[in-house]
């Protein structure tokens, strides 16, 4: 509120203005009055115009600074914040909230003392004085952060009209400053009803086929008598798991752990529910859907060998310790089709392996080559381009040295330096291509720097080389050291995992989840790479989204961010969706699907969170109120002497040269003078 204002100017500027008046008046009088033969009205008018233009020009040259002082009364702000989420409508409190809001907003005493400003919140925070109660999330934390940003360095109270049930964001109790009082108005029925609720479900997003995956459920009971409820997990019409759980007034929570079988490949949707024979007011919080993507990671591995050796059995047992692996030991002349296998272990290859190598040059199946005393190194030199073997006829024992700088995949030193030596033909091994060495060799105490275990990757094909036989002794030594084969088996499994993985570089890479809860943020991101595998900032990416049930199709553009393209698909209804991302310049496409689970988090509550709101009021030294206590709330605010209006002096300084109107006035005066002189023939 502005009370009054006035202008000031320095003494020197005032003297200069008086001199300017004298100069402008003298010059115009001398030219149009003193020298004029006829003292007509035109002469006086021209003298006035000349006086005006000269005086204004002199004003611009002096350029006085005009200081304006404004006296303003600033009231304390009073944010009036309303919960606009669907939980308010579900608790049937929308009419009561509107009534409370209008009563507070229209209170003249509050308006006289405070600057009342109304806001609403659900997932976001914004100014508003109308409410529809359709927000799909409640984030009271965003109220605290937004008010801090709006009212920096100010002391103010906050009226928060809400049920206190937050579904996203940080704990709001400690988000508000403790020196800024919050007065929660608690809406909703506080009567305790019998109610079962699934508070939380913990489950991994992925599971391996034929394995079991854990589900952890946190259950809650609200009631006053002993009761038994059934916790059921089902898929479609089939019940997968059922447990009876006893609750009582002293035992109101329970944690249930269930192992479910992953029998079908792909995205599997399950329903968890809790119920009893008693009637409940709210059954929306009795059920939660969840989904798990079952992955078939079964890897078929062929150990191809023309000789018998203890290494073969040790490798088979180590690899098959992972139930997702299946190993077949076969001779090179007996193998029927390489396409049946994901990884080939070529044990001590000789010329008998020629057909295997020739066929695999087309199939490009990743290989694990193991050499030893029976290996034909001349043949091996012809079949690969990673090493040059110059071997003599003698045999040598090679100890291992672990390379701590190896970074192709995570590998643990399980005590390789203390393992029995591997035996290989003596000679020199030269590295030709880019090779990553995990274990290098040592003869007694002399390091040869030659590899024992190395890995290569070339144009999407991967290979591993173990240069020495008798690795079965390593597995046995691991058991001696740890009373378990586990460490050695995990080490071998990591090698197989590296070889079983495909690392083909794709130009269009899309990332997304396979399922979302209704109301979650749904964002799909993509990257597009040019032929040099560089991020292409000129790509044009679109996405076509199809509802699997209604067949409704929607098209969106992906917007470029920081080395990424993304699209936000918030607002979709629950259901299954197929989508296709396309790069318009190259026609590269990626197709997949996702599912939005039917879960309305705002319908999980039957009562306001009185305890949380009371904590908030206590933390900020405010006080909680109920809808029938609005008059008491107004009285508390009006009687609080901490919230007084502040008188502020606002000083602004404006140089006269910034006045555009002065330039316009000079122009008008000069132009008018010219026309009058022209019209009266005074040129």
From TrEMBL:
Originating species: Flavobacterium micromati
The entry's keywords: Membrane, Transmembrane, Transmembrane helix
UniProt xrefs under InterPro entries: Class_I_gatase-like
Name used for this protein in its record: VWA domain-containing protein
Transmembrane stretches, start-end: 14-32, 44-66, 659-676
């Amino acid at each position: 509120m502005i009370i009054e204002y006035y202008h000031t100017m320095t003494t020197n500027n005032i003297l200069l203005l008086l001199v300017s008046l004298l100069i402008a008046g003298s010059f115009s009088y001398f030219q149009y009055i003193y020298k004029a033969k006829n003292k007509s009205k035109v002469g006086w008018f021209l003298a006035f115009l000349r006086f005006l233009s000269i005086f204004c020009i002199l004003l611009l040259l002096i350029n006085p600074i005009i200081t304006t002082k404004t006296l303003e009364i600033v009231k304390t702000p009073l944010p009036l914040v309303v919960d606009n989420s669907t939980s308010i409508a579900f608790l049937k409190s929308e009419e009561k909230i509107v009534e409370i809001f209008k009563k507070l907003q229209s209170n003249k005493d509050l308006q006289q003392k405070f600057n009342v400003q109304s806001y609403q919140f659900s997932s976001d925070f914004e100014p508003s004085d109308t409410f529809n109660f359709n927000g799909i999330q409640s984030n009271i934390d965003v109220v605290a952060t937004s008010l801090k940003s709006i009212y920096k360095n100010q002391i103010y109270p906050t009226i928060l009209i809400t049920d206190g049930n937050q579904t996203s964001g940080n704990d709001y109790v400690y988000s508000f400053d403790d020196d800024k009082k919050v007065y929660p108005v608690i809406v909703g029925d506080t009567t305790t009803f019998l109610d079962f609720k699934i508070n939380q479900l913990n489950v991994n997003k992925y599971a391996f086929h034929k394995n079991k995956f854990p589900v952890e459920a946190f259950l809650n009971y609200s009631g006053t008598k002993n009761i038994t409820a059934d916790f059921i997990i089902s898929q479609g019409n089939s019940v997968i798991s059922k447990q009876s759980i006893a609750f009582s007034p002293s035992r109101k929570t329970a944690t249930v752990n269930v192992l479910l079988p992953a029998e079908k490949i792909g995205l599997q949707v399950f329903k968890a529910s809790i119920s009893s024979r008693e009637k409940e007011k709210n059954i929306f919080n009795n059920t939660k859907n969840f989904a798990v993507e079952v992955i078939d990671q079964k890897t078929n591995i062929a150990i191809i060998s023309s000789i018998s050796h203890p290494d073969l059995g040790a490798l088979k047992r180590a690899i098959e310790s992972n139930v997702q692996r299946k190993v077949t030991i076969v001779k090179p002349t007996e193998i029927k089709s390489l396409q049946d296998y994901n990884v080939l272990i070529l044990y001590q290859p000789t010329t008998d392996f020629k057909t295997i190598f020739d066929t695999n040059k087309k199939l490009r199946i990743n290989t694990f080559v193991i050499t030893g005393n029976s290996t034909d190194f001349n043949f091996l030199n012809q079949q690969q381009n990673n090493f040059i073997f110059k071997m003599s006829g003698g045999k040598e024992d090679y100890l291992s040295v672990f390379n701590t700088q190896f970074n192709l995949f995570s590998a643990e030193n399980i005590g390789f330096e203390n393992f029995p030596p591997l035996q290989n033909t003596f000679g020199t091994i030269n590295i030709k291509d880019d090779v990553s060495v995990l274990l290098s060799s040592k003869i007694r105490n002399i390091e040869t720097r030659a590899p024992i275990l190395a890995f290569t990757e070339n144009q999407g094909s991967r290979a591993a080389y173990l240069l020495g036989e008798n690795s079965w002794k390593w597995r046995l030594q691991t058991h001696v050291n740890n009373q378990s084969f586990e460490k050695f088996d995990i080490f071998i499994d990591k090698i197989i995992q590296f070889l079983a993985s495909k690392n083909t570089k794709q130009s269009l890479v899309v990332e997304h989840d396979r399922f979302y809860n209704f109301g979650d943020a749904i964002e799909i991101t993509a990257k597009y790479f040019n032929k040099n595998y560089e991020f292409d900032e000129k790509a044009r990416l679109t996405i076509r989204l199809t509802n699997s049930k209604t067949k409704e199709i929607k098209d969106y553009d992906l917007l470029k961010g920081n080395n990424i393209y993304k699209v936000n698909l918030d607002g979709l209804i629950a259901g299954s969706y197929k989508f296709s991302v396309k790069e318009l310049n190259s026609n590269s496409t990626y197709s997949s699907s996702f599912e939005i689970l039917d879960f309305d988090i705002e319908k999980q509550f039957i009562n306001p969170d009185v305890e949380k709101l009371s904590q908030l009021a206590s933390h900020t030294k405010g006080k909680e109120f109920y809808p029938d206590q609005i008059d008491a709330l107004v009285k508390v605010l009006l009687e609080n002497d901490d919230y007084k209006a502040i008188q502020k002096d606002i000083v602004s300084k404006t140089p006269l040269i910034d006045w555009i109107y002065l330039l316009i006035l000079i122009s008008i005066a000069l132009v008018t003078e010219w026309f009058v002189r022209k019209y009266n023939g005074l040129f």
